[in-house]
# Entry
Amino acid sequence: MPNAVIEFDEDMEFLSSALLNGGSKVSRSVMIMQVPKDHMCSEPKKEVVSRIKALGLPSDTVSFMTAAEVDYVFTEAYVSYEGVEMAAFVTAGLSNQVVAGEVLENWEERHALSNERSRALRPGTINIIVVSSKPLTEVGKVNAVITATEAKTAALNYLGYKETGTTSDAVAIASPEGENGIDFTGTGTSIGIATARAVRKAVATALMRRDDFPVGYTDKKKEKLREGI
# Structure
């Protein structure tokens, strides 16, 4: 199965909800591992470790899992704002989107829709990796998680969804090591604005590549949304 691999030239500090090497870690690599449709695995971490070894990646690789078509929906977005450069790397697919706090319903109906769109069921997950050009403190990374999450929801809203995300979303914030790390990365800061714009663009683009629009959208409306992003 395809994989998305991001490798850095220097050690990067991560804060993430990754399946393997999540939490606060230092690493030079990230992997998003694609699994088959209807994938069932009782020990997913062992499966990820096996994939890392097969690819020759370091054991500390921050690793995610998805059933979305990695070679098709993997999306990069780079934004510079007031001297701050931020990047977002995303894989995204829908079928299990939900408003946070509500119970996921209509699963069989969504199964059928996903099957119609891709001719093979691809459960939805939105994986987001945000890369900062500037060092961030741990507080700054936590704040960036909030900013990235809000931006993900903004991307869904842009496409016409009321949902806030999927039931299996994951996120990572990466920044270079260094002193004088930034503490505040909220949506009112230059770094927060750059982060949000990168995430919004990458998430929306990935979903549009997969034709994950709300039911009933015309080709004309889809094209207008594609042009707007």
Remarks:
- The radius of gyration is 17 Å.
- The first strand starts at residue 3 and ends at 16.
- Strands lie at 3-16, 23-34, 62-66, 75-81, 84-92, 97-98, 126-132, 165-166, 170-176.
- The chain has one domain: 3-212.
